[in-house]
Amino acid sequence: MGFVMLLVIGVYVVAGNLVNGVGSGGRALAKGAVPAAYKSLVQKWGNLCPALTPALLAAQLYQESGWNPTIVSPADARGIAQFIPSTWATHGIDGNGDGKRDIWDPNDAIPSAASYDCELAKYVKGVPGNVSDNMLAAYNAGAYRVIRAGGVPAISETQNYVKRIRSLAQSFAAPAGRIDPTQQAAGAIAFAQSKLGTPYLWGGEGSAEQGGRFDCSGLTQAAYAKVAITLPRVANDQYNAGPHPSRDQLLPGDLVFFSTDLGDSRAIHHVGIYVGGGYMIDAPRTGAVIRFDPIDTPDYFGATRVTEDGAKALPTTV
Phi and psi at residue 60, in whole multiples of 5°? Predict the structure, then answer.
């Protein structure tokens, strides 16, 4: 334990000197970012046209439904791609070739979302600006408004939609190179370190009523809240708050995740804050206290380098 404390002090100093940045992503998908049941569909249809990428399509689907194929919105948008029935009637396709266009079937809905995106990209291909941004704006506000505005229209909802999807796409794209660390990592580590020895509480968010106790994702959420980054409440949504460094690229402040299914981020069951040397600070389970634990276990899933833009892009509910 003495060694680990010295280790944390050292990495805390290193983390305090980190600079802000976000890595770039390629057309491949990050490990486990898309549920295994949909990965091949997103990978295939996300390459349907130059304006679309698998990561961009994944970000849209996650933002719209959180990968829930049975969800219905208050506006009667349905399924994993959240098509309104009238839009589905004209733009839904038979993606799996079974002779039916089923709004509830991801095998039809995911290809339809990609097809609709690419159709919109054709409509706005002559509009000044980035074609992918204009495509997303057309998805939100309609192609006519994009054409009339000569780009992303000055509508706050549409501008925010484009920014959210573009930022969120970084968490679904496999890193193409170096991922820069965030400035906020040191503060998150310092908060978690200050909670060492605190008893675990299922559902704990550190409130006075809860005796200042946390569960795993409550601790990581509170740690990043201390540096003005708002994370979702549960671990499998926190995974999408930034790009994903590989095991040998981990830096202090990265969130590390553990899953019952190593091919599916929706099966993540635990999260901690990496401190270096193969260790994390985490709130492990009922009966335990917040402590240092090794990360190299059979259920180690991957990591996220939290970014402010990535966290802001996440939907409040999925």
Answer: -60, -50
Which residues are registered as beta bridge partners of 282?
291
Cβ atoms 63, 57 nearer than 8 A: no
Question: What is the biggest distance separating any 2 CA atoms in the chain, rounded to whole angstroms?
Answer: 65
Q: What is the pLDDT of residues 51-83, one digit of tens each?
A: 999 999 999 999 999 999 999 999 999 999 999
Residue 104 and residue 78: Cα distance in Å, rounded?
A: 7
Q: Angle 36-45/106-123 helices, nearest 10 degrees?
A: 30
Length of the chain, in residues: 318
Look at residue 14 in the predicted model and tell me its pLDDT.
36
Residue 92 has pLDDT above 80, yes or no: yes
- For residue 217, give the 3-state DSSP assignment: helix
Q: Report strand pairing: 25-29 vs 173-175.
A: antiparallel
Beta 279-282 vs 291-294: how paired, if at all?
antiparallel
Residue 95's nearest CA partner among 62, 46, 50, 139 is 46
What DSSP element (H or E) covers 25? strand 25-29
Distance CA 63, CA 108 (A): 18
* 3-class secondary-structure state, position 247: helix
